[in-house]
Amino acid sequence: MMNHFLTEDTFRKGLSTYLDAFKYGNAEQDDLWEHLTQAAHQDGTLPLDLTVKTIMDTWTLQMGYPVITVERSPDGTSASVSQERFLLVKEGDFKSSEEYKWWVPLTYTGGDDSNFNETRAKVWMKDTETLITIQSLPTKDHWVIFNLQETGYYRVNYDNHNWNLLIQQLLTDHTVIATINRAQIIDDAMNLARADQVAYDTALEVYNYLGQETEYVPWATAINNLAYLKDMFSRTGGYGALKNYLLDILVPLYNMLGFIDSQSDPLLDQYKRQKALTWACELEHQDCLQNAAAIYAHWMNNPDNSSIISPNLKSTVYCHAISVGGEKEWNFAWNKYLKSNVGSEKIRLLSAMGCTKQVWILSRYLEIAFSPDSGIRKQDAFRVFGAVAANEVGRPLAWTFLQDQWDTIFEFYGKAKSRLIKSATSSFNSVQQLKELRLFRREHLQDLESVSRSVQQVIERTKINIAWMTSNYQVIVNWLHKNGYSTKLSNA
After folding, report:
1. Which positions fall inside the Peptidase M1 membrane alanine aminopeptidase domain (predicted)?
2. pTM for the full model?
3. Which of 276, 179, 271, 274 has its CA nearest to residue 226?
4. Which tens digits make up the pLDDT trace of 248-290?
5. Which residues does residue 83 pair with via DSSP β-bridges, in sequence order?
6. Helices marked H in 325-391 — which ranges?
7. CB 292 within 8 A of CB 316
């Protein structure tokens, strides 16, 4: 952020004098701020009455970061801009968080004459200011975007009209908006929706353009933000509609990239393929599952040929071939795990074996993992448990196993392990699951004393998930129905 509001040349100049001055001595944070300030004042990139320390202390000495809210006037040419601390959940100490303010470098551009390359602050919002007014914006028919190239460490919210203008621009010609800012719009919309500051209708409308998106950064951002939504929906009647919607968005990218990975492909294409294939298979896209199974079968027929599966795709192929396979595919992976002496390969195989949909194999896998002479290292039993818990079929098995075998697990490690509890309960979102969690804590109160804070955090997370489901599940189902993805069955 500093190299943008100071400019790259000024930042390098200040850093150079700082390193030269302290090359043989000790330095403190304020020494760096002083040298950057001197360079900025010499170059005129900061006003003489403003120092880097004044700015950066608001970022380094207090928790969190802000969300900037932009409310444009009816004609669009001015906007009220406010700041507050961004919190996914407002509870507990929220009132004290209202006192948090930052020096915020505001950068922005408009749809009438967009320029995403000017990342030096146009306006500074002071830490004493809750609300400011910005003038000379484009008229109401043109969008504005703040935080150009996402060079500032803050989120941005807009009024409904500006959100709609951005959505229309993405649908019409998304390339008009810089790649990083497209990712920013997706990330801000989804996180603001989760924080109940933007309607999920708006956040999901942002996703509608993704069928045209080809760049890695927006796609990676979009996929990362879907994980929570998928977890919350995975055991509900609305999951099928959500899955079909996500597949319609994702399949064009999947088709464009294909399943065959080549080391000669540009690096970002390899990253995109890895993301696209992982999610396409996760959403049970048949072509993806068939390809994974076919490549894995080819490897089973040629077990000594380690080059059959691209290194980038091994995790995806292993997991989803095992998920649609049976005992034969699982046992092949197990034998490969026992024979391998490559750490990264053993980890991939351990995780992949948790992907099977065969309940009895998952149960056996959990039992093996916590046995002293299984061939699985004690520290890797965590990974096995996490892999089973991440599997929609294995999730309830992992929780049941943790409850039924708690004494065995406790003896196995010699103490309580909060990581196991977190893995088993990460997607808990019902009142019944909350009751089970509280009962588990009461029954093992003494054992859990050393991790009581972590257990309380798990309970609080479950309560947050329940509240999210109450507020958002039906809203999202209604939006899906309105857009042609119904959860209702035909009576014909």
Report:
1. 1-59
2. 0.92
3. 276
4. 999 999 999 999 888 788 999 999 999 999 999 999 999 999 9
5. 68
6. 327-339, 343-353, 359-369, 381-390
7. yes
